[in-house]
Amino acid sequence: MTSMQWRIWSLACAGKFFEGMVVFMTGVALPLLAIEFDLKASAQGLVTAASLAGILVGATALGGLADAYGRKRMFIVEMIIFTVFLVALTLTPSFTLLVIFLFGAGLALGCDYPTAHMVISESIPTRKRGRLVLSAFAFQAVGALFGTLVGFVVLHEEPDVGAWRWMYATAIVPAILVIIGRFFVTDSPHWLASQGRTAEAERATGRLLRRHPPYPKRVSLKRSAESGPAAPDDSGYAALFGRRHRRATIFASVPWFLQDLGTYGIGIFTPTILVAVIGAKSASHTLADTVHNDLLAAEGSAIMNVLFVIGILVAIFLVDKIGRIKLQALGFISCAAGLGLAALSIRPDGGHNMVLLFAGFMLFYFMTNLGPNSMTYLLAGEVFPTHLRGKGAGFAASFAKVGAVLTAFLFPVLLDEIGTATLLAILVAGFLLGAVVTIVYRIETTGVNLEQIGDAEPPMPTARQRDGGTSIPTIGPASRP
Question: Is the pTM higher than 0.85?
Fold first, then answer.
């Protein structure tokens, strides 16, 4: 790993950090927003769903542009968009503008889903790809924990209804620094080669691999005789649903959708669920009661988010040893077990078993990042060929965020209408279905060079690849193994 490779990795981490921070901090800010703007359950659902809806649109609408305009350009543009909307969010005077600005911030974060994955995976050795992509993804969990802690500290120091503005404002200066840093990275040699810009790809590869003493001293990329430009009917979004790529599209999209149904719903509304179960019961709903319950829930949510971080750390260690498929399937089943325990903790008489509740949530938070939350993100950026990677990963992220938006919007309403236990039982069924789809449509990419990906079934890794073959392009965009 060169200094440029580490720079690209660290700047990609930032996007996932901001996503975790903004999305999950909304759960802490929501009670204050409800008071300031007098929000009912459906309006609260709009607030929590707004940034996720932005991610849904941005992953495809902006993320797909990385295939046409380059990884680096969209890597910069997305962070500029995020910062502009974040500043506007802290100054918003109305509920309508609040929702619009949250959507705009999500739009940028959606672009980051495929783009951050690609700038890492197309710049590092095959044998390190899983660990480093997941290490960057881990910063979503770090951001979620940080966002919860920021919410707690701000509330503690400023127990006022407008404290939520300071929560979001803490991300503005770091975001500006990330924008500046992204101007000083190389573009993807994979993408440049796929566009026929071989000379630029050689220069980018040389800059990417620059080290002292120099190795390699000269970079020369050649297109294999059988490769060529992608066919017109194999480069648009329609190609994702053709015979060649349909399996990859289903495999990348459906399990991610099912896990987002639970992960975002539970992640955002853990404070709300904890308040409903263990919060101070009061009919007055004063600001003091709201702040007290919010602080209590933030503490419990922070404990859960620690397990979120631990889960991704274990995934980083295991992903290239055990493989993506086993971790994803095991994670889905274990998450179902965790939510099942949480559902059983709530008794028909309204009482609760605190041990079962926390044991269930702790198992869920640990296993979701060990399994489906991290693996679905990793696999979506690996199962498509270079010329379709941005569109494929972007579509998968957008499809997944349909689940996130649905659960974020409907959670407040369903908690009132059908109760916590029933809602948790529905999510259990969703996670079990995710395990089934993972096993039926599985495509294992562990140890497979990105240049060999694109057929319905990627080849098994060769001995050279398992020992650390590079991911830097040596053949063209429509390569065959």
Answer: no
